[in-house]
Amino acid sequence: MRGKLIIFSAPSGTGKSTIISWLMKEHPELRLAFSISCTSRPPRGTEQNGVEYFFLSAEEFRQRIDNGEFLEYEEVYEGRFYGTLKAQVERQLEGGQNVVFDVDVKGGARIKEYYGDEAMSIFIQPPSIATLRQRLEGRGTDAPEVIDQRIARAEFELTFAEKFDKRVVNDQLEQAEQDTLALVKEFLFTDNGLQFTDDYPTSHADCRSNQL
Questions:
Q1: Strands 98-102 and 70-77
Q2: Which of 26, 91, 154, 192 could hold 11 in an S-S bridge, CB 3.0 to 4.6 Å?
Q3: Checking DSSP bridges between strand 70-77 and strand 53-55, what pairing results, if any?
């Protein structure tokens, strides 16, 4: 059976990665597998080609862009690319995996547009910008000016929230995890999938191909 696609986007510090990790670890019945992205940066540490990323040269990356092979891509800075190959996603879908994307809002919108009802897009958002700032400050890892930059970006990203199929407000993490799980189960295990379009109540709160 062909898999489906689940797209997650959120401002930094909202808890998106924590929610995704919980879903994949605690609910193997969902058959979730990360999309394997491409990058033009060199491998780090023990990273392996076809596992964490497909590692391409900047020249090859640009050639594949020109060939229209990417669902979405971003040049983070000159010569440093990240992107998702259409062919790789198709291999994972045909293998029965439900492919998970952890992408920025623009990339999420492009993937959703390409796949339509085969994909569900979920936006994880904080209860408020003030709460998000408190969380970022509580990490103790970023300088004040970096936090200001993250907040400014979050305010921009929140303007995209209504473009997503579903939204979950992460006020209390455990409730947000359960809310997200319910949405994913509904999408994967019901025939009419995204015919259920009402916003979900907000919370208080792998075999992988290594060929290109």
A1: unpaired
A2: 154
A3: unpaired
